[in-house]
Write a structure and sequence with these properties.
heterodimer; A: 263 residues; mainly alpha; 11 helices; 77% helix; B: 292 residues; alpha/beta; Rossmann fold; 2 domains; 6-stranded mixed β-sheet; 9 helices; globular; binds adenosine-5'-diphosphate; binds magnesium ion
Protein backbone atom coordinates (compact mmCIF):
# COMPACT_ATOMS: atom_id res chain seq x y z
CA UNK A 1 0.00 0.00 0.00
CA UNK A 2 2.88 2.31 0.81
CA UNK A 3 4.30 1.66 -2.64
CA UNK A 4 1.01 2.41 -4.37
CA UNK A 5 0.73 5.55 -2.29
CA UNK A 6 4.14 6.91 -3.25
CA UNK A 7 3.77 5.96 -6.90
CA UNK A 8 0.40 7.75 -7.01
CA UNK A 9 1.81 10.84 -5.38
CA UNK A 10 4.65 10.93 -7.85
CA UNK A 11 2.17 10.53 -10.67
CA UNK A 12 0.20 13.57 -9.52
CA UNK A 13 3.27 15.77 -9.42
CA UNK A 14 4.08 14.77 -12.98
CA UNK A 15 0.48 15.19 -14.12
CA UNK A 16 -0.39 17.98 -16.53
CA UNK A 17 -3.81 18.44 -14.93
CA UNK A 18 -2.16 19.43 -11.68
CA UNK A 19 0.36 21.67 -13.37
CA UNK A 20 -2.47 23.41 -15.23
CA UNK A 21 -4.59 23.90 -12.15
CA UNK A 22 -1.69 25.30 -10.20
CA UNK A 23 -1.39 28.17 -12.65
CA UNK A 24 -4.60 29.50 -11.10
CA UNK A 25 -2.58 30.10 -7.95
CA UNK A 26 -1.01 33.05 -9.74
CA UNK A 27 -4.26 34.88 -8.99
CA UNK A 28 -2.94 35.18 -5.41
CA UNK A 29 -0.76 38.02 -6.59
CA UNK A 30 -3.86 40.04 -7.40
CA UNK A 31 -5.48 39.69 -3.99
CA UNK A 32 -3.70 42.61 -2.22
CA UNK A 33 -4.59 45.11 -4.93
CA UNK A 34 -8.21 43.94 -5.14
CA UNK A 35 -8.52 44.01 -1.36
CA UNK A 36 -7.17 47.53 -1.10
CA UNK A 37 -10.08 48.74 -3.26
CA UNK A 38 -12.39 48.15 -0.31
CA UNK A 39 -10.64 50.91 1.68
CA UNK A 40 -11.93 49.80 5.08
CA UNK A 41 -11.98 46.06 5.30
CA UNK A 42 -8.76 45.34 3.45
CA UNK A 43 -7.65 42.56 5.79
CA UNK A 44 -11.03 40.90 6.01
CA UNK A 45 -11.39 40.95 2.27
CA UNK A 46 -7.95 39.54 1.71
CA UNK A 47 -8.72 36.66 4.09
CA UNK A 48 -12.03 36.00 2.35
CA UNK A 49 -10.47 36.06 -1.10
CA UNK A 50 -7.51 33.90 -0.08
CA UNK A 51 -9.68 31.24 1.49
CA UNK A 52 -12.09 31.25 -1.43
CA UNK A 53 -9.32 30.96 -3.96
CA UNK A 54 -7.73 28.06 -2.09
CA UNK A 55 -11.11 26.40 -1.81
CA UNK A 56 -11.65 26.73 -5.54
CA UNK A 57 -8.24 25.28 -6.40
CA UNK A 58 -8.78 22.37 -4.01
CA UNK A 59 -12.19 21.74 -5.54
CA UNK A 60 -10.67 21.46 -9.01
CA UNK A 61 -7.93 19.16 -7.75
CA UNK A 62 -10.38 16.95 -5.87
CA UNK A 63 -12.74 16.64 -8.81
CA UNK A 64 -10.20 16.17 -11.57
CA UNK A 65 -7.46 14.24 -9.81
CA UNK A 66 -9.86 12.25 -7.67
CA UNK A 67 -12.19 11.58 -10.57
CA UNK A 68 -9.55 10.52 -13.07
CA UNK A 69 -6.91 8.78 -10.95
CA UNK A 70 -8.48 5.35 -10.69
CA UNK A 71 -10.24 5.63 -13.99
CA UNK A 72 -6.96 6.36 -15.76
CA UNK A 73 -5.31 3.27 -14.28
CA UNK A 74 -8.15 1.12 -15.56
CA UNK A 75 -8.47 2.89 -18.92
CA UNK A 76 -4.75 2.69 -19.65
CA UNK A 77 -4.65 -0.90 -18.39
CA UNK A 78 -2.13 -0.16 -15.67
CA UNK A 79 -4.37 -2.21 -13.41
CA UNK A 80 -3.31 -5.40 -15.22
CA UNK A 81 0.30 -4.89 -14.33
CA UNK A 82 -0.33 -3.55 -10.84
CA UNK A 83 -3.01 -6.05 -9.85
CA UNK A 84 -0.66 -8.83 -10.94
CA UNK A 85 1.40 -7.89 -7.90
CA UNK A 86 0.73 -9.40 -4.49
CA UNK A 87 -1.36 -6.44 -3.30
CA UNK A 88 -5.02 -6.72 -2.44
CA UNK A 89 -7.54 -4.68 -4.36
CA UNK A 90 -8.40 -2.84 -1.14
CA UNK A 91 -4.84 -1.76 -0.41
CA UNK A 92 -4.48 -0.66 -4.02
CA UNK A 93 -7.52 1.65 -3.93
CA UNK A 94 -6.75 2.88 -0.45
CA UNK A 95 -3.12 3.51 -1.37
CA UNK A 96 -4.22 5.54 -4.36
CA UNK A 97 -6.74 7.42 -2.27
CA UNK A 98 -4.11 8.17 0.35
CA UNK A 99 -1.80 9.48 -2.39
CA UNK A 100 -4.40 11.90 -3.73
CA UNK A 101 -5.50 12.97 -0.23
CA UNK A 102 -1.95 13.60 0.85
CA UNK A 103 -1.54 15.70 -2.24
CA UNK A 104 -4.63 17.76 -1.40
CA UNK A 105 -3.20 18.35 2.07
CA UNK A 106 0.21 19.31 0.71
CA UNK A 107 -1.37 21.72 -1.72
CA UNK A 108 -3.36 23.37 1.05
CA UNK A 109 -0.22 23.75 3.15
CA UNK A 110 1.64 25.41 0.28
CA UNK A 111 -1.32 27.62 -0.62
CA UNK A 112 -1.81 28.38 3.07
CA UNK A 113 1.70 29.76 3.19
CA UNK A 114 0.99 31.88 0.14
CA UNK A 115 -2.20 33.10 1.83
CA UNK A 116 -0.25 33.99 4.95
CA UNK A 117 2.08 36.18 2.95
CA UNK A 118 -0.79 37.83 1.08
CA UNK A 119 -2.80 38.52 4.24
CA UNK A 120 0.26 39.93 6.03
CA UNK A 121 0.99 42.21 3.14
CA UNK A 122 -2.63 43.37 2.85
CA UNK A 123 -2.92 44.13 6.55
CA UNK A 124 0.21 46.27 6.17
CA UNK A 125 -1.54 48.45 3.60
CA UNK A 126 -4.42 49.28 5.90
CA UNK A 127 -4.14 48.14 9.51
CA UNK A 128 -6.92 45.78 10.52
CA UNK A 129 -9.54 46.88 13.03
CA UNK A 130 -9.45 43.48 14.73
CA UNK A 131 -6.39 41.38 15.38
CA UNK A 132 -5.92 38.56 12.88
CA UNK A 133 -6.54 35.18 14.51
CA UNK A 134 -4.14 32.98 12.56
CA UNK A 135 -5.17 29.76 14.27
CA UNK A 136 -8.73 30.27 13.05
CA UNK A 137 -7.52 30.84 9.53
CA UNK A 138 -5.44 27.67 9.52
CA UNK A 139 -8.24 25.66 11.06
CA UNK A 140 -10.67 26.89 8.43
CA UNK A 141 -8.13 25.88 5.83
CA UNK A 142 -7.65 22.45 7.34
CA UNK A 143 -11.36 21.70 7.40
CA UNK A 144 -11.71 22.93 3.87
CA UNK A 145 -9.03 20.42 2.88
CA UNK A 146 -10.82 17.65 4.80
CA UNK A 147 -14.01 18.49 2.96
CA UNK A 148 -12.28 17.98 -0.37
CA UNK A 149 -10.67 14.76 0.82
CA UNK A 150 -14.16 13.48 1.49
CA UNK A 151 -15.08 14.59 -2.01
CA UNK A 152 -12.11 12.64 -3.39
CA UNK A 153 -13.46 9.56 -1.60
CA UNK A 154 -16.76 10.06 -3.43
CA UNK A 155 -14.95 10.44 -6.74
CA UNK A 156 -13.18 7.13 -6.03
CA UNK A 157 -16.46 5.47 -5.14
CA UNK A 158 -17.91 6.54 -8.47
CA UNK A 159 -14.75 5.40 -10.27
CA UNK A 160 -15.13 1.86 -8.99
CA UNK A 161 -18.56 1.44 -10.54
CA UNK A 162 -17.92 3.30 -13.76
CA UNK A 163 -15.96 2.58 -16.91
CA UNK A 164 -15.61 6.22 -17.97
CA UNK A 165 -14.52 9.38 -16.23
CA UNK A 166 -17.96 10.90 -16.78
CA UNK A 167 -19.58 9.50 -13.65
CA UNK A 168 -16.64 10.15 -11.30
CA UNK A 169 -16.13 13.74 -12.42
CA UNK A 170 -19.74 14.82 -12.71
CA UNK A 171 -20.78 12.65 -9.79
CA UNK A 172 -18.23 14.42 -7.60
CA UNK A 173 -19.39 17.83 -8.81
CA UNK A 174 -23.01 16.90 -8.02
CA UNK A 175 -22.10 15.63 -4.58
CA UNK A 176 -20.27 18.87 -3.96
CA UNK A 177 -23.21 21.02 -5.03
CA UNK A 178 -25.79 18.99 -3.16
CA UNK A 179 -23.54 18.57 -0.11
CA UNK A 180 -23.05 22.30 0.12
CA UNK A 181 -26.81 22.89 0.11
CA UNK A 182 -28.15 20.12 2.35
CA UNK A 183 -27.91 22.19 5.51
CA UNK A 184 -29.81 25.07 3.94
CA UNK A 185 -32.54 22.80 2.66
CA UNK A 186 -32.77 21.06 6.01
CA UNK A 187 -33.00 24.37 7.82
CA UNK A 188 -35.54 25.74 5.38
CA UNK A 189 -37.89 22.82 5.98
CA UNK A 190 -37.93 23.67 9.64
CA UNK A 191 -38.93 27.27 9.04
CA UNK A 192 -42.52 28.54 8.79
CA UNK A 193 -42.34 28.70 5.01
CA UNK A 194 -40.90 25.21 4.88
CA UNK A 195 -43.85 23.76 6.74
CA UNK A 196 -46.03 24.65 3.77
CA UNK A 197 -44.14 22.18 1.53
CA UNK A 198 -45.78 18.91 0.48
CA UNK A 199 -45.39 16.16 3.09
CA UNK A 200 -43.17 13.88 0.93
CA UNK A 201 -40.54 16.55 0.54
CA UNK A 202 -40.59 17.02 4.26
CA UNK A 203 -40.05 13.27 4.65
CA UNK A 204 -37.39 12.77 1.95
CA UNK A 205 -35.31 15.86 2.60
CA UNK A 206 -34.23 14.90 6.14
CA UNK A 207 -33.38 11.38 4.91
CA UNK A 208 -31.15 12.82 2.21
CA UNK A 209 -29.72 15.16 4.80
CA UNK A 210 -28.39 12.21 6.71
CA UNK A 211 -27.26 10.19 3.67
CA UNK A 212 -25.53 12.92 1.70
CA UNK A 213 -22.52 14.65 3.14
CA UNK A 214 -23.10 17.96 4.86
CA UNK A 215 -20.23 20.08 3.65
CA UNK A 216 -21.48 23.15 5.44
CA UNK A 217 -20.33 21.63 8.71
CA UNK A 218 -16.78 22.02 7.41
CA UNK A 219 -17.15 25.75 6.86
CA UNK A 220 -15.29 27.82 9.45
CA UNK A 221 -14.62 30.76 7.15
CA UNK A 222 -16.66 33.26 9.14
CA UNK A 223 -14.64 32.51 12.27
CA UNK A 224 -11.45 33.00 10.30
CA UNK A 225 -12.47 36.26 8.66
CA UNK A 226 -13.83 38.04 11.71
CA UNK A 227 -11.68 36.33 14.33
CA UNK A 228 -14.76 34.89 16.07
CA UNK A 229 -13.95 32.25 18.67
CA UNK A 230 -14.58 28.69 17.48
CA UNK A 231 -16.97 26.41 19.29
CA UNK A 232 -14.87 23.48 20.46
CA UNK A 233 -17.72 20.93 20.35
CA UNK A 234 -18.43 22.10 16.80
CA UNK A 235 -14.87 21.31 15.77
CA UNK A 236 -15.00 17.88 17.40
CA UNK A 237 -18.38 17.15 15.90
CA UNK A 238 -17.10 17.92 12.42
CA UNK A 239 -13.96 15.85 12.94
CA UNK A 240 -15.97 12.85 14.07
CA UNK A 241 -18.41 13.34 11.23
CA UNK A 242 -15.53 13.44 8.76
CA UNK A 243 -13.91 10.26 10.09
CA UNK A 244 -17.09 8.20 10.18
CA UNK A 245 -18.28 9.39 6.80
CA UNK A 246 -14.86 8.81 5.22
CA UNK A 247 -14.64 5.33 6.69
CA UNK A 248 -18.03 4.36 5.29
CA UNK A 249 -17.35 5.69 1.79
CA UNK A 250 -13.94 4.01 1.64
CA UNK A 251 -15.33 0.73 2.94
CA UNK A 252 -17.90 0.77 0.13
CA UNK A 253 -15.27 1.74 -2.40
CA UNK A 254 -12.85 -1.05 -1.56
CA UNK A 255 -15.50 -3.70 -1.32
CA UNK A 256 -16.90 -2.76 -4.74
CA UNK A 257 -13.45 -2.61 -6.30
CA UNK A 258 -12.52 -6.01 -4.81
CA UNK A 259 -15.42 -7.52 -6.72
CA UNK A 260 -14.74 -5.76 -9.95
CA UNK A 261 -13.55 -7.72 -12.98
CA UNK A 262 -10.58 -6.25 -14.78
CA UNK A 263 -11.01 -7.14 -18.42
CA UNK B 1 3.58 -28.89 -4.51
CA UNK B 2 2.68 -28.13 -8.11
CA UNK B 3 3.47 -24.72 -9.49
CA UNK B 4 0.09 -24.26 -11.14
CA UNK B 5 -3.08 -26.29 -10.75
CA UNK B 6 -6.15 -25.52 -12.79
CA UNK B 7 -9.23 -27.54 -12.10
CA UNK B 8 -12.25 -27.49 -14.41
CA UNK B 9 -12.13 -23.73 -14.74
CA UNK B 10 -14.76 -21.94 -16.84
CA UNK B 11 -15.27 -18.32 -17.80
CA UNK B 12 -18.31 -16.98 -19.57
CA UNK B 13 -18.43 -13.30 -20.41
CA UNK B 14 -21.80 -11.67 -20.55
CA UNK B 15 -21.77 -9.15 -23.33
CA UNK B 16 -24.27 -6.51 -24.32
CA UNK B 17 -27.82 -7.55 -25.11
CA UNK B 18 -27.44 -10.91 -23.41
CA UNK B 19 -24.67 -12.11 -25.73
CA UNK B 20 -22.56 -14.73 -23.98
CA UNK B 21 -18.99 -15.67 -24.84
CA UNK B 22 -17.67 -18.91 -23.42
CA UNK B 23 -14.04 -17.88 -23.40
CA UNK B 24 -12.76 -20.84 -21.35
CA UNK B 25 -14.60 -24.15 -21.01
CA UNK B 26 -13.89 -26.70 -18.32
CA UNK B 27 -10.12 -26.41 -18.50
CA UNK B 28 -7.91 -28.53 -16.25
CA UNK B 29 -4.14 -28.53 -16.20
CA UNK B 30 -1.31 -29.22 -13.79
CA UNK B 31 2.10 -27.69 -14.26
CA UNK B 32 5.01 -28.83 -12.15
CA UNK B 33 7.76 -26.71 -10.74
CA UNK B 34 10.72 -26.42 -13.05
CA UNK B 35 8.57 -27.00 -16.10
CA UNK B 36 8.41 -24.84 -19.22
CA UNK B 37 4.88 -24.98 -20.56
CA UNK B 38 3.73 -23.49 -23.86
CA UNK B 39 0.08 -22.53 -24.13
CA UNK B 40 -0.56 -22.55 -27.84
CA UNK B 41 -3.66 -21.43 -29.65
CA UNK B 42 -4.93 -19.10 -32.36
CA UNK B 43 -6.21 -15.59 -31.59
CA UNK B 44 -9.34 -15.61 -29.50
CA UNK B 45 -8.76 -19.17 -28.25
CA UNK B 46 -8.99 -18.12 -24.61
CA UNK B 47 -5.32 -17.99 -23.69
CA UNK B 48 -5.38 -14.51 -22.19
CA UNK B 49 -8.61 -15.22 -20.36
CA UNK B 50 -7.06 -18.32 -18.78
CA UNK B 51 -4.08 -16.25 -17.70
CA UNK B 52 -6.30 -13.48 -16.30
CA UNK B 53 -8.14 -16.14 -14.31
CA UNK B 54 -4.82 -17.32 -12.92
CA UNK B 55 -3.88 -13.77 -11.95
CA UNK B 56 -7.20 -13.10 -10.24
CA UNK B 57 -8.05 -10.30 -12.65
CA UNK B 58 -11.30 -11.98 -13.65
CA UNK B 59 -13.29 -14.41 -11.55
CA UNK B 60 -14.08 -17.90 -12.83
CA UNK B 61 -17.73 -18.76 -13.50
CA UNK B 62 -16.83 -22.30 -12.46
CA UNK B 63 -13.91 -24.35 -11.21
CA UNK B 64 -10.83 -23.17 -9.39
CA UNK B 65 -7.10 -22.67 -9.73
CA UNK B 66 -4.10 -22.28 -7.49
CA UNK B 67 -0.51 -21.17 -7.79
CA UNK B 68 2.13 -22.62 -5.45
CA UNK B 69 -0.68 -23.93 -3.27
CA UNK B 70 -2.56 -20.63 -2.91
CA UNK B 71 -6.01 -20.18 -4.42
CA UNK B 72 -5.93 -17.52 -7.12
CA UNK B 73 -8.66 -15.58 -5.33
CA UNK B 74 -6.09 -14.54 -2.73
CA UNK B 75 -3.33 -12.02 -3.27
CA UNK B 76 -0.92 -14.52 -1.70
CA UNK B 77 -1.09 -16.58 -4.88
CA UNK B 78 0.75 -13.76 -6.65
CA UNK B 79 3.60 -13.66 -4.19
CA UNK B 80 5.73 -16.12 -6.13
CA UNK B 81 4.66 -15.04 -9.59
CA UNK B 82 6.09 -12.77 -12.22
CA UNK B 83 3.31 -11.77 -14.61
CA UNK B 84 3.68 -10.20 -18.01
CA UNK B 85 0.31 -9.03 -19.38
CA UNK B 86 -0.57 -9.13 -23.06
CA UNK B 87 0.43 -5.82 -24.71
CA UNK B 88 1.48 -4.52 -21.32
CA UNK B 89 1.15 -0.94 -20.11
CA UNK B 90 3.05 0.43 -17.15
CA UNK B 91 2.87 3.75 -15.30
CA UNK B 92 4.26 5.81 -18.14
CA UNK B 93 5.23 8.79 -16.02
CA UNK B 94 7.93 6.65 -14.42
CA UNK B 95 11.27 5.70 -15.92
CA UNK B 96 12.22 2.05 -16.38
CA UNK B 97 14.52 2.24 -13.38
CA UNK B 98 11.89 3.83 -11.13
CA UNK B 99 9.36 1.24 -12.19
CA UNK B 100 11.64 -1.67 -11.38
CA UNK B 101 12.36 -0.19 -7.97
CA UNK B 102 8.61 0.15 -7.40
CA UNK B 103 8.03 -3.51 -8.32
CA UNK B 104 10.98 -4.73 -6.26
CA UNK B 105 9.79 -2.88 -3.18
CA UNK B 106 6.27 -4.22 -3.59
CA UNK B 107 7.80 -7.68 -3.37
CA UNK B 108 9.69 -6.65 -0.26
CA UNK B 109 13.17 -6.35 -1.76
CA UNK B 110 15.67 -4.11 0.02
CA UNK B 111 17.65 -1.22 -1.36
CA UNK B 112 21.25 -2.29 -2.17
CA UNK B 113 20.32 -5.73 -3.52
CA UNK B 114 17.41 -4.23 -5.43
CA UNK B 115 19.56 -1.61 -7.15
CA UNK B 116 22.05 -4.27 -8.19
CA UNK B 117 19.37 -6.58 -9.54
CA UNK B 118 17.74 -3.68 -11.38
CA UNK B 119 20.99 -2.87 -13.13
CA UNK B 120 21.44 -6.52 -14.06
CA UNK B 121 18.01 -6.92 -15.66
CA UNK B 122 18.15 -3.52 -17.32
CA UNK B 123 21.41 -4.50 -18.97
CA UNK B 124 20.13 -7.95 -19.85
CA UNK B 125 17.12 -6.47 -21.65
CA UNK B 126 19.11 -3.72 -23.29
CA UNK B 127 17.31 -0.92 -21.44
CA UNK B 128 20.30 0.40 -19.54
CA UNK B 129 20.81 3.42 -21.77
CA UNK B 130 17.13 4.32 -21.60
CA UNK B 131 16.66 3.60 -17.87
CA UNK B 132 16.24 7.26 -16.86
CA UNK B 133 13.78 8.18 -19.61
CA UNK B 134 10.07 8.25 -18.91
CA UNK B 135 8.30 5.22 -20.35
CA UNK B 136 5.95 7.56 -22.19
CA UNK B 137 8.76 7.94 -24.74
CA UNK B 138 9.39 4.20 -25.14
CA UNK B 139 8.69 2.19 -28.28
CA UNK B 140 6.43 -0.85 -28.12
CA UNK B 141 9.38 -3.20 -28.11
CA UNK B 142 11.01 -1.32 -25.25
CA UNK B 143 7.85 -1.51 -23.17
CA UNK B 144 7.67 -5.25 -23.87
CA UNK B 145 11.27 -5.65 -22.74
CA UNK B 146 10.56 -3.66 -19.60
CA UNK B 147 7.66 -6.05 -19.06
CA UNK B 148 10.15 -8.89 -18.97
CA UNK B 149 12.51 -6.93 -16.75
CA UNK B 150 9.77 -6.36 -14.16
CA UNK B 151 9.06 -10.08 -14.21
CA UNK B 152 12.68 -11.00 -13.59
CA UNK B 153 13.50 -8.35 -10.98
CA UNK B 154 12.09 -10.15 -7.96
CA UNK B 155 13.27 -13.63 -8.93
CA UNK B 156 9.92 -15.45 -8.61
CA UNK B 157 9.44 -19.23 -8.86
CA UNK B 158 6.62 -19.06 -11.39
CA UNK B 159 6.55 -16.96 -14.54
CA UNK B 160 3.26 -16.34 -16.29
CA UNK B 161 3.86 -14.62 -19.58
CA UNK B 162 1.10 -13.65 -22.01
CA UNK B 163 2.67 -13.59 -25.48
CA UNK B 164 6.14 -12.64 -24.27
CA UNK B 165 7.60 -12.46 -27.77
CA UNK B 166 4.96 -10.21 -29.32
CA UNK B 167 6.13 -6.83 -30.52
CA UNK B 168 9.79 -7.86 -30.50
CA UNK B 169 12.25 -7.95 -33.37
CA UNK B 170 14.17 -11.17 -34.15
CA UNK B 171 16.98 -10.16 -31.80
CA UNK B 172 14.50 -9.55 -29.01
CA UNK B 173 12.74 -12.87 -29.66
CA UNK B 174 16.03 -14.74 -29.48
CA UNK B 175 16.81 -12.90 -26.26
CA UNK B 176 13.51 -13.95 -24.71
CA UNK B 177 14.03 -17.57 -25.74
CA UNK B 178 17.46 -17.41 -24.14
CA UNK B 179 15.96 -16.00 -20.94
CA UNK B 180 13.34 -18.74 -20.79
CA UNK B 181 16.00 -21.44 -21.28
CA UNK B 182 18.06 -19.82 -18.58
CA UNK B 183 15.08 -19.88 -16.20
CA UNK B 184 14.65 -23.54 -17.04
CA UNK B 185 18.23 -24.25 -16.05
CA UNK B 186 17.52 -22.52 -12.73
CA UNK B 187 14.58 -24.86 -12.15
CA UNK B 188 11.90 -22.17 -12.54
CA UNK B 189 8.42 -22.74 -13.90
CA UNK B 190 7.41 -20.78 -16.98
CA UNK B 191 3.88 -20.78 -18.36
CA UNK B 192 3.60 -18.74 -21.51
CA UNK B 193 1.02 -18.27 -24.21
CA UNK B 194 1.76 -17.86 -27.87
CA UNK B 195 0.23 -18.39 -31.28
CA UNK B 196 3.58 -19.15 -32.90
CA UNK B 197 4.57 -22.82 -32.96
CA UNK B 198 8.29 -22.30 -33.39
CA UNK B 199 8.42 -20.43 -30.06
CA UNK B 200 7.17 -23.58 -28.37
CA UNK B 201 9.38 -26.00 -30.30
CA UNK B 202 12.65 -24.55 -29.11
CA UNK B 203 12.02 -23.94 -25.41
CA UNK B 204 9.10 -25.92 -24.01
CA UNK B 205 8.94 -29.20 -22.16
CA UNK B 206 5.24 -29.55 -22.78
CA UNK B 207 2.70 -27.83 -24.93
CA UNK B 208 -1.04 -27.45 -24.45
CA UNK B 209 -3.14 -26.63 -27.47
CA UNK B 210 -6.26 -24.62 -26.83
CA UNK B 211 -9.01 -23.95 -29.35
CA UNK B 212 -12.25 -22.07 -28.78
CA UNK B 213 -11.79 -22.19 -25.03
CA UNK B 214 -11.18 -25.95 -24.89
CA UNK B 215 -7.86 -27.56 -24.11
CA UNK B 216 -7.52 -30.02 -26.99
CA UNK B 217 -4.31 -31.79 -26.19
CA UNK B 218 -1.31 -31.67 -23.89
CA UNK B 219 1.87 -33.30 -25.19
CA UNK B 220 5.54 -33.49 -24.44
CA UNK B 221 7.28 -31.49 -27.11
CA UNK B 222 9.96 -34.18 -27.31
CA UNK B 223 7.45 -36.89 -28.10
CA UNK B 224 5.79 -34.81 -30.79
CA UNK B 225 9.20 -34.39 -32.31
CA UNK B 226 10.14 -38.11 -32.22
CA UNK B 227 6.76 -39.61 -32.93
CA UNK B 228 6.39 -37.13 -35.70
CA UNK B 229 9.23 -38.73 -37.71
CA UNK B 230 7.88 -39.82 -41.04
CA UNK B 231 11.10 -40.93 -42.78
CA UNK B 232 14.78 -40.28 -43.31
CA UNK B 233 17.02 -38.61 -45.83
CA UNK B 234 20.07 -40.82 -46.20
CA UNK B 235 23.27 -39.59 -47.87
CA UNK B 236 25.33 -42.40 -49.32
CA UNK B 237 28.82 -42.32 -50.78
CA UNK B 238 29.22 -45.27 -53.15
CA UNK B 239 32.56 -46.92 -53.58
CA UNK B 240 34.59 -45.00 -56.15
CA UNK B 241 31.97 -42.28 -56.60
CA UNK B 242 33.02 -38.62 -56.38
CA UNK B 243 29.82 -37.30 -54.91
CA UNK B 244 27.23 -38.40 -52.37
CA UNK B 245 23.83 -39.41 -53.51
CA UNK B 246 20.71 -38.98 -51.47
CA UNK B 247 18.02 -41.52 -50.91
CA UNK B 248 14.73 -41.11 -49.08
CA UNK B 249 13.64 -43.91 -46.80
CA UNK B 250 10.21 -44.08 -45.29
CA UNK B 251 10.05 -44.78 -41.55
CA UNK B 252 9.86 -48.56 -41.93
CA UNK B 253 12.34 -48.78 -44.80
CA UNK B 254 15.33 -47.31 -43.04
CA UNK B 255 17.05 -50.53 -41.95
CA UNK B 256 16.56 -51.98 -45.40
CA UNK B 257 18.15 -48.95 -47.08
CA UNK B 258 21.05 -48.88 -44.66
CA UNK B 259 21.58 -52.64 -44.96
CA UNK B 260 21.61 -52.47 -48.75
CA UNK B 261 24.17 -49.68 -48.72
CA UNK B 262 26.45 -51.48 -46.32
CA UNK B 263 26.24 -54.71 -48.32
CA UNK B 264 27.39 -52.77 -51.39
CA UNK B 265 30.33 -51.43 -49.38
CA UNK B 266 29.08 -47.83 -49.58
CA UNK B 267 29.65 -45.31 -46.86
CA UNK B 268 26.72 -43.64 -45.17
CA UNK B 269 27.64 -40.02 -44.51
CA UNK B 270 24.42 -38.63 -43.06
CA UNK B 271 21.01 -39.75 -41.87
CA UNK B 272 18.58 -36.94 -41.35
CA UNK B 273 15.14 -37.57 -39.92
CA UNK B 274 12.27 -35.90 -41.68
CA UNK B 275 9.64 -35.06 -39.10
CA UNK B 276 6.23 -33.63 -39.03
CA UNK B 277 6.90 -30.51 -37.03
CA UNK B 278 4.85 -28.93 -34.28
CA UNK B 279 3.24 -26.60 -36.74
CA UNK B 280 1.82 -29.47 -38.75
CA UNK B 281 0.77 -31.19 -35.56
CA UNK B 282 -0.99 -28.02 -34.48
CA UNK B 283 -2.66 -27.50 -37.85
CA UNK B 284 -3.80 -31.13 -37.82
CA UNK B 285 -5.58 -30.58 -34.54
CA UNK B 286 -7.15 -27.37 -35.78
CA UNK B 287 -8.35 -29.11 -38.95
CA UNK B 288 -9.78 -32.08 -37.08
CA UNK B 289 -11.59 -29.74 -34.73
CA UNK B 290 -13.05 -27.75 -37.60
CA UNK B 291 -14.16 -30.90 -39.40
CA UNK B 292 -16.20 -31.99 -36.42
N1 LIG C 1 -14.07 -8.77 -21.45
C1 LIG C 1 -14.57 -9.57 -22.39
N2 LIG C 1 -15.88 -9.50 -22.68
C2 LIG C 1 -16.42 -10.31 -23.62
N3 LIG C 1 -15.72 -11.22 -24.32
C3 LIG C 1 -14.40 -11.33 -24.07
C4 LIG C 1 -13.76 -10.52 -23.10
N4 LIG C 1 -12.45 -10.85 -23.07
C5 LIG C 1 -12.28 -11.83 -23.97
N5 LIG C 1 -13.46 -12.12 -24.59
C6 LIG C 1 -13.67 -13.16 -25.62
O1 LIG C 1 -13.16 -14.37 -25.14
C7 LIG C 1 -12.51 -15.08 -26.17
C8 LIG C 1 -11.09 -15.41 -25.76
O2 LIG C 1 -10.31 -14.23 -25.71
P1 LIG C 1 -8.80 -14.24 -25.26
O3 LIG C 1 -8.68 -15.03 -24.02
O4 LIG C 1 -8.33 -12.85 -25.22
O5 LIG C 1 -8.09 -15.02 -26.46
P2 LIG C 1 -6.54 -15.18 -26.82
O6 LIG C 1 -5.74 -14.54 -25.75
O7 LIG C 1 -6.35 -16.63 -26.91
O8 LIG C 1 -6.34 -14.52 -28.13
C9 LIG C 1 -12.60 -14.22 -27.41
O9 LIG C 1 -13.68 -14.69 -28.19
C10 LIG C 1 -12.89 -12.85 -26.87
O10 LIG C 1 -13.66 -12.11 -27.77
MG1 LIG D 1 -4.39 -13.11 -25.90
Amino acid sequence: MLQVFSVTLRGVFRDRVFQGILIIAVVFLLIPSISSLSMRQVTELSITLSLSLISFILLLLAVFLGGTSLWKDIERRYTFSVMGLPVTRASYVLGKFAGISCFVLLTSVVLGMAATAVIRYSSGIYPAMRPIVWSNIYLALLFDALKYILLVAFAFLFSTISTSFFLPVFGAISVFLVGSATQQVYDFIHTQAGQALPWYIKKIAPALYYVLPNFEAFDFKVNAIYGIALSVPGVFYTTGYFLIYLFLVLAFTSSIFSRRELQ
Amino acid sequence: MNAIEISRICKTFKGKRGARVEAVKDLSLVIKQGEIFGFLGPNGAGKSTTIKLLMGLVRPTGGSASIMGHDVGSHLSRKHVGYLPENPAFYDYLSAEEYLIFIGKTFGMKEPALKEKAEKVLRLLDLWEARKRRMREYSKGMVQRLGLAQVLIHDPDVYILDEPMSGLDPIGRALVKGIILDLKSQGKCVFFSTHITSDVETVCDRVGIVLKGVLQSVERVESIMTEGITGYHVRIKDKGADEDREEYAAKDEISEVVGRAQAAGSEITLIEPKRKNLEEFFLDIVKRKDAR
